[in-house]
Amino acid sequence: MEAVTGTGDSRKGFTLIELMVVLTIVGVLMGIAVPQYKNSVLKAKETVLKENLFVMRRCIREFYQDKRRYPHTLEELVQEKYLNVLPVDPIAKSSQSWQAVQEEPPEEGNYNAEELGIVDVKSGAPGSSPLENRPYSEY
Questions:
Q1: In angstroms, rounded to a whole number, what is the distance separating the alpha carbons of residues 52 and 62?
Q2: Total structural domains in the chain?
Q3: pLDDT tens-digit readout, 87-130
Q4: What is the domain extent for residue 39?
């Protein structure tokens, strides 16, 4: 018995128009997805930054309550076991970029600048948040 073949072209595949339509749809989807992905990554980094600052500020307060003085360095929080490690600033990608805010010197009497402790900490990351329209140093 002989196989019956259909009339016309029996090649299988996609036409150029079909491929162009599929590529256009993929391009549109990528155009929507990539900016959303970038915004979600940035939002996650800013959330981690805020959480790291919250934890370090809490540790500074606890240090003061326990020792009746502020820590002289951020590393002292690690040495005294208030923190396991100094957290990384996710925007600056460094644990050494934190900006320590020193306590105000007393108005009267002599004081040693080395005795002034850290009362607050801020991000040392350059630039501003495009999501919140404020500098990272104000977090």
A1: 15
A2: 1
A3: 999 999 999 999 999 998 877 767 777 778 999 999 999 999 99
A4: 17-127
CA distance 52 to 86: 9
Which residues are within 8 A (CB) of 22 and not within 5 positions of it... i.e. 6 or more apart? Answer: 14
Residues 6 or more apart in contact with residue 97 via CB below 8 angstroms:
89, 123, 124, 125
Q: Which residues contact 139 (CB under 8 A, 6 or more apart)?
A: 46, 49, 50, 53, 122, 123
Sign of CA dihedral 120, 125, 131, 132: positive
C-alpha 4/C-alpha 6 separation (Å) is: 7
* 112 is a domain residue: yes
pTM: 0.76
